[in-house]
Amino acid sequence: AFARIEPHAREALAGRRVEYEADLPFNGIGPRAVRVACEPERDGDGRVVGYVAAVLDITDRRRAEEELRRRAEEVETLMEFLPVAVIRAEDPACHRLTGNLAAHRLLGVPVGAGLSKSPPPGQPGPAYRTLQDGAEVPPDRLPMQTACRTGEEV
Prior knowledge:
The chain has a three-stranded antiparallel beta sheet with strand order 1-2-3, sandwiched between helices. The chain has a two-stranded antiparallel ribbon with strand order 4-5. By secondary structure, the protein is of the alpha+beta class. The termini are far apart. The chain is elongated and about 80 Å long.
């Protein structure tokens, strides 16, 4: 463990503030991920006489981040291969809607282009039309926009 800490300790003893993360072995509990901040301690003349270190165990946070990353990859893979159109709102006003490949194909919108019929002001929306009983539905009455605005199922 000392070999992993030593370079950072030397920096602190050289008068520099140091922050780092490391995986360190601990007796009795095994390896832990830690975040460390070291601040040089100085005497009255400003000479470095040591340093103070604050150590935070971030093992649980790291595990949670890894699980979140893994689940995000699962969702992205699922979105990519689902044979049905899936569209999700990236913001409450539905200015940015993203979808999977099936959604882009269904709507005739190039992959990577926005799907929202209510894009941010000054930006053009996609060319597809949404009809109800033969009449075009205004963007503020579309199902996704209504659900996002009201918080209710449509």
